[in-house]
Amino acid sequence: MTALPDASFAPPPGYRLRLPGPTEVPEAVRAALGRPMINHRGPEFRALLAATEELVRPVLGTRNPVVFLAGSGTAAMEATLANILAPGERVLVASHGQFGERFAEIGRCLGAEVEVLDFTWGEAPDPAVIGAKLREGDYGALLVTHNESSTGVVADLEALGRLTRDTRTLLVTDSVSGLGGIEMRQDEWGVDIVVSASQKALMCPPGLGLVSLSERARARVQRNEGMPRFFFDFRKALAAAEKHETPFTPNVSHLAALHTALRLIETETLPKVLARHHRLAEALRAGGAAMGLAEFTKAPRRSSTVVVFEVPAGLEGGDIVRLMYQRHATVIAGARNRLQGRVIRIGVMGGHDEGTVLTDLVQLESVLRELGHAVSPGAGVSAAAAFLAG
Ligand code: PMP
């Protein structure tokens, strides 16, 4: 038998996780993960779940009940569609990137009749075009990615909410990479369902999904027809949530972590958290621009949680990603889709400060120079510093 390799899971010294998720987990949140296990049907867990739900509501901008799931964001997306759609039901996906495509794929896989409005990657979904399409047919739901992690574009949910509000079409949004870093006003905007996950701006490890459902979304879930579902049955989850429980054994430690992360947000205050994300993303953009890194999107509604840069002509995105890791132990993202090689993506999610983005820019500069891209020394970092000082 061949010996197993000597696996060391420790990241190299100076490791910086700068992906658009999973993101760095703050110390206090990591400590919460290590708390002693508790009875998931006991008073301590009920108190934890109740407090977590109460803390996440302002981040969602809702009074809705929230269902917590053991599973990543994709699990929460699939669970959502299985609960609101019937086999063969028409659903419209306003897709503006990789995760819109994923929503469509999940819908097809479950047996819904999926129609896709394909918006050019890098452009925001156009409410006028979507409105015209919605008037053509009877759609059970409109699915849209709030913050498209593949392009760095944010959809105008408020405008989309105006389209669906007085119709039978539920507005469902994937805010896996937005929630906690980009404003969400679920109730005010008329968003029926917000799907999110723990590992992005919510600063937790991957593995916890959450879904918040409006009254009419809950009514849809209760109907008897619909897709087969068992573990993911929101009828059970909503009934259990009323007692501050989950139908099956929950990921207790993840919930303890999320509770702590939400306390961090509450302490800093949500407006300040959102403003900090915006400011750091803008600083990163300013610094990138000064080094010849154009932003992929030219759309006005840009993400505060992920900055997507075009790779300069003559360079390969994968080389930048690889050298950032090899030279600096910094992990940034490329693309695993049609933009592969053409963009690099850097997360601005969670508990970062100015030092994070300034360091990103210093390291990017050295890597770009090594790859033969001319950058005048300090151009990126000084543009970002000037922005931050302004
Ligand atoms: N939607 C968006 C916008 C995402 O960024 C991601 C994760 N990159 C997902 C969905 C899928 O989430 P997960 O990887 O947690 O399944």
TrEMBL record:
Cofactors demanded by this protein: pyridoxal 5'-phosphate
User: Gene3D superfamilies per the record?
Assistant: Aspartate Aminotransferase, domain 1, Type I PLP-dependent aspartate aminotransferase-like (Major domain)
> Which keywords annotate this record?
Aminotransferase, Pyridoxal phosphate, Transferase
- Spell out the PROSITE patterns in the cross-references: AA_TRANSFER_CLASS_5 (PS00595)
Q: Does the keyword Transcription regulation apply?
A: no
Signal sequence annotation: none
Q: Specify whether NADP is a keyword of the entry.
A: no
Domain Aminotransferase class V: where?
35-336
Q: Note the superkingdom of the native organism.
A: Bacteria
Q: Which GO terms describe its molecular function?
A: transaminase activity
- InterPro entries attached to this UniProt entry: Aminotrans_V_dom, Aminotrans_V_PyrdxlP_BS, PyrdxlP-dep_Trfase, PyrdxlP-dep_Trfase_major, PyrdxlP-dep_Trfase_small, SP_NH2Trfase/AEP_transaminase
Family, similarity comment: Belongs to the class-V pyridoxal-phosphate-dependent aminotransferase family.
- PANTHER family linked to this entry: ALANINE--GLYOXYLATE AMINOTRANSFERASE, AMINOTRANSFERASE CLASS V
What protein name does the entry list? Alanine--glyoxylate aminotransferase family protein
Q: Which organism is it from?
A: Roseococcus pinisoli
